[in-house]
Design goal:
Radius of gyration: 16 Å
Oligomer: single chain
Order of helices and strands: HHHH
Structural class: mainly alpha
Helix content: 55-70%
Strand content: under 5%
Distance between the termini: 58 Å
């Protein structure tokens, strides 16, 4: 088998695992309890990108739907009903910490 073939198999296996993980959570996010830590929203979005690659490779609509569910989570379909994107959605972060803004005096 080729490197390309092995990469494809690995990608599709990972996408299927993410799909299964999403199906086992209340908010349709492909995260386990131990995956939530500072910066974990980047993990959610990186997983969405993998799912989009999986969809592009297979046209599996479940991969695309799961990718969109990750975006929905970031935009407020979560336990807090909080959009994690500032100035987006009904409830979003106020006064986020941004060290460079504080440092410029």
């Amino acid at each position: 088998s080729t490197v390309q073939g092995l990469l494809r198999i690995s990608l599709l296996d990972r996408c299927q695992n993410l799909l299964n993980q999403r199906n086992n959570t209340g908010f349709q996010v492909a995260m386990s309890p131990g995956d939530y830590y500072w910066g974990s929203n980047a993990v959610v979005l990186n997983r969405a990108i993998l799912l989009i690659f999986g969809y592009a490779e297979t046209q599996n609509d479940q991969f695309l739907a799961t990718a969109l569910d990750q975006l929905h989570y970031i935009l407020g379909v979560n336990a807090h009903q909080l959009s994690f994107v500032t100035v987006t959605g009904r409830l979003s972060p106020m006064n986020p910490h941004h060290r460079p803004s504080i440092a410029d005096g």
